[in-house]
Design brief:
Distance between the termini: 31 Å
CATH class of the largest domain: Mainly Beta
Largest sheet: 6 strands, antiparallel
Number of helices: 0
CATH architecture of the largest domain: Sandwich
Structural class: mainly beta
Oligomer: single chain
Strand order of the largest sheet: 2-1-11-10-7-8
Shape: elongated
CATH topology of the largest domain: Tumour Suppressor Smad4
Number of domains: 2
Strand content: over 45%
Order of helices and strands: EEEEEEEEEEEEEEEEEEEEE
Helix content: under 10%
Length: about 200
């Protein structure tokens, strides 16, 4: 089970196991993890954990949510990520993580995959899904991320007001497993997920 280490001004304040699928962080008492500082929004962020994967989502906080120095809306957490919420530093620790030197770039058991653009001026264009996370779309408008894990490939709506479609149905903010031939629709641009 993953956990987070919460520090303020270099002092470790608490360690929290991520025991629920969705855990909220913020200043208000109803949050799962309460961070008592006026620069933290009432409901600042949430960590969603599904199986072995955890995602950090900013809940439209005033001062933003940062991972490894970059402001994020939604972020796939990896062992060692450093999260900054106002005055707090939060280190993400994945359970059962292997030493860095022993982690292969990609799990060998997962077949290669790619995205094929089906329409428009880029029809026929292929994009290899050879990174742990690939983003599609335009920031602030509509972004889908495709995450590659030991369990396979999963897509989620990461950013923007426009909801992308997966096989004609709205794609949510939680990871959805992809199968060969699935079709993503981002604002009219259709793309097929291809395995192998």
């Amino acid at each position: 089970m993953a956990k987070i280490l919460i520090s303020r001004e270099g002092v470790l304040e608490k360690t929290v196991q991520l025991t629920k699928e969705r855990m909220t962080l913020g200043r208000h008492r109803h949050n799962d993890i309460v961070l008592e500082h006026q620069t933290v929004s009432g409901e600042h962020a949430a960590i969603i954990t599904i199986l072995d994967d955890s995602f950090l989502e900013d809940l439209y906080s005033t001062n933003g949510t940062f991972v490894n120095g970059h402001r994020v809306g939604k972020h796939f957490l990896q062992h060692g990520d450093s999260i900054k919420l106002a005055k707090y530093r939060i280190d993400f620790v994945a359970d059962g993580i292997r030493p860095i030197s022993g982690i292969p770039a990609m799990p060998a058991a997962i077949p290669p995959a790619r995205i094929e653009v089906l329409n428009g001026s880029n029809a026929g264009r292929l994009l290899a899904l050879d990174k742990p996370q690939t983003s599609l779309g335009r920031a602030g408008i509509q972004v889908v991320t495709i995450n590659r894990t030991e369990a396979g490939y999963a897509a989620l709506h990461a950013d923007g007001d426009r909801v992308p479609l997966l096989n004609g149905a709205p794609l949510g903010k939680l990871p959805h497993a992809l199968a060969d031939g699935d079709v993503l629709d981002l604002s009219g641009t259709r793309m097929a997920f291809r395995l192998g």
